[in-house]
Structure formats: C-alpha cells, structure tokens
Amino acid sequence: MIYLDNAATTFPKPDAVWDAVLRCGRTSCGNPGRSGHPLAAAAAREVFTAREALAELFNIPDSSRLVFTCNATMALNMAIYGILTDGGHVVTSSMEHNSVMRPLHHLQRQGRITLTVVPCSPRGELDPGDVKRAVQADTRLVVLTHASNVCGTILPVGEVKQCLPDLPLLVDAAQTAGVLPIDVEASGIDMLAFSGHKGLLGPMGTGGLYVAPSLRLEPLMQGGTGSRSEELMQPDFMPDALEAGTPDVPGLSGLHAGIRFLQETGLATVRAHETALTRTLIEGLAGHEKIRIHGLADPVRQTAVVSITMDERDPGDIARSLDRDFGIACRASLHCAPIAHRTLGTYPQGTVRLSMNYFNKQDDVREAVRALQVIAEQGEA
Amino acid sequence: MKKEGCYVLVLPSIHHILKVEKGAKSRSIPMELIPTPRQISSDCGMAVEVHRDNLDRLLSMVEQSKVPEWKLYCREGGDYRPVSG
Predict the structure, then answer these.
(1) What domains lie within chain A, and their CATH numbers?
(2) Is pLDDT above 80 for A127?
(3) Of the residues A149, A285, B31, B41, which has the maximum number of CB atoms within 10 A of its CB?
(4) How far is CA A84 from CA A77, A88, A97, A116, A144, in A?
(5) Residue-range domains of chain B with CATH
(6) How many CB pairs under 8 A join A and B?
(7) Do A240 and B12 touch (CB under 8 A)?
(8) Which parts of A317-376 are beta strand (E)?
(9) pTM for the model
C-alpha cells in the first residue's frame, strides 16, 4: 500500500515511537504525580520530559504553560470555551476545520458569542488586513488555522498577530506542528493547539495546548491532579489547572520519541523532503485537462497536502479506484471542513486529498500521478 | 534517607519538583528527590531534600524559576519544622 493520508494521521511512525510506548508500559507506568514510589516517579519523568521537549520545539519559555490533551480537537475546545466565558465577539477564517467551527457555531447558536468569519480567497489565502478590519470593540479572540487541512495553504498567523498585538490569538496547528517551524515566543501566539499523531509522529490519543502566561482559561474539566487534594477547587496553577485525570503516559513517551526523531533528523530536512514530494505531485498533475488542483499549487507556500477534483466525478469513486486498482490510500469528500470547501468552490462534493509525510518516497508520488492520469483517461467507471 | 540538618522543599506538583531537579542538575547543586515524609502534606508524593550547605543556592534557583509557591521544612529531632520563606 502507498499511504497518502498523512494529513489524517501519519503512517508509518518511526520504530522508536512504538519502542518507547512499549518500554514505558512495561517499565515506567505508575500514576504520575500521585505517589512517591519509583514507578510513579518514572511515569512523572516520562510526562515531564515530553513536556520539556515540546516546549523546546515550540520555543515556550515556561513548559508548565503547555498542557496535554487527547488531540487537537480537545485542545481547541479547551481554549475556545475556556477563554470565552464572558462571551464577546470572535473572528475566524473561512478555511477552518470543524474542530474550530463547531464549538464556535455552538456558542453562537446559544447566543453566547457573536462571530465573524473572514472570507479567504478561492485558493485559501487570508489577508491579515481583512482580519484587522473584522475586529470590533468587543472582540475577545481570533482563531486561525496555521494551514488548511484541505489544500495545505499556509495562513499568515504571525502577520495577523503583528496587526493585532493586543488580541488573544488561538492557532490551530493540527497540520503544522512538527511540519513547519513554530516559535511561540517570536510570533506572539497566545494559544497553540496541536495534535500529537500527525506531524509530530506520536501515537493517537496525544495532543496539547499552549496557553500564554497572560491568559487564564476556565477549565473544561475538573478532577484529580495529584495536587491540593484537600481542596474541592481545581488548582489554579499550570499545568494542573488544565490537566485533570490520569494522562496517557505511554502515548506521551511515544510522542516524545517522535519529537526526538524530528529533532535528530532536523525539521528543515523533513520539510525539504515533503516540499519535494509536493512539487512532484503538483507538477505531475498540473496541466492535465481533466484534473484540477485546488489551493495554491505552490509547494513552498503550502504543506504536503494536495486536493484535486476531476470534472464532475465523485471524489469518493476516485479514491475507491486509487485504493482498489492502485493500492493508494487517500481521503475523499469534505475532510471535516465544509466551510473550507465552500471557500475553494468544492462544496458539497469535496475533493480527493493526497497528503505526504517524511517516509514517502518520490516513487510513491510518481505512482499516484500515474494512477490519477489513468483514472482521468478512463472516465466514469 | 532522613538526615538531621537537612531541609525538605515541598512544591505544588510533580511538574515543579522535576523542574527544580532539572535546574539543580544543570547548576550542579546537590539535592535528592525523596518520598514526602509522612509528617508533611504533599499530594504528589515527592519532595526535594537538600543539605543546609546547598540550601541558599537551591532556593535562589527556585525563586528565579516559574514555581508558583513552595514550602520549606527543616528536619530537627526526627520531626519537620516549617521554615518561613
């Protein structure tokens, strides 16, 4: 099988990731922070070192400001519900994933917030000036994806922050953590939500949220933290304030191994390889009269995610043919981002999305190009 | 290990304990993580033990770090006396 569904979850992971999960489960799996015995201490070290590694990766000065979650969706919900307790106006883009749009839509329907969705171009580009113009006196939050999960277009989150230095900016880095350099300190990002099982190469069930020291979030969940057990109030200090319940210690050990792999390989090396794969795919498909590439079709300004359509053909049928006839795994349809498809002009049929990672070879992409050309020539099945 | 003349530092959570341990190691300040003595309340189960000779350096490092709060105890006559910060 040629796996080109890495925007959903990366596969394969480095062997070191699964080795770390097993090693942790077999040797270091007490409950962290709850006891003083060696297994609890070993588990606490697994969590601590993973947190420190992520803080280093994102240039977060105080690692206690980074909390672990089950995934990026949980992190985004924690950030959105946690900061908007008093309501207000929110600005977001028309390229967002449902993990941003659904919580915002829910709050809007309940009358708790008002929402402005800034339109992006039909290639997914966002003008920072449009975000600035959307801001009102009662705006409390700006939420932006760092890169589209549909077409890979990278959004100018740093420029938006420069335009609006005093407004909290929440960045959805589900598609970019471990893929693009992210410097929280330099960019001024106030909250960063990320997935552990995509670009960071960790196991599913891992993710996290960075919260700037200037912000205090109302916790989405309360519960055991191993600290201040005599009190019924959730602790107000980080990371415990936002980390109730036992964490996925083996998963975080695996995530740490994924980060180590990225740091040893070099983020720039990973990015260069993925850019080269994206270029091969785009150049191989560009100009074909029946194939349309959506988004920028520029490997430098997008992640290794390419969305295509063929005339009026059902993307699901194309994906099925890629799987059945060529052994190529990809994802079709709306990719949990209907608003982004409306922006790109691909709603409601969606697209066929091909997404690469560091472990793909050029031959994988050439085979995908060949397969799509054959399918295009075949016409309707 | 319960040494007379040693100090025990209690921190809010295991994250802060390990942060202090990392900072102490990087500055070559001798200290040890111990299961929290039963006379002292600390939920996370662990505390930092430090000899009086290294106490000032350790506390100076803790004060510069992002630890939100801490408590210090001195072991005397088999018991632990709180020391005001």
Answers:
(1) 16-265 (3.40.640.10), 266-378 (3.90.1150.10)
(2) yes
(3) A149
(4) 11, 7, 19, 15, 16
(5) 6-83 (3.30.70)
(6) 67
(7) yes
(8) 328-329, 331-333, 351-355
(9) 0.95
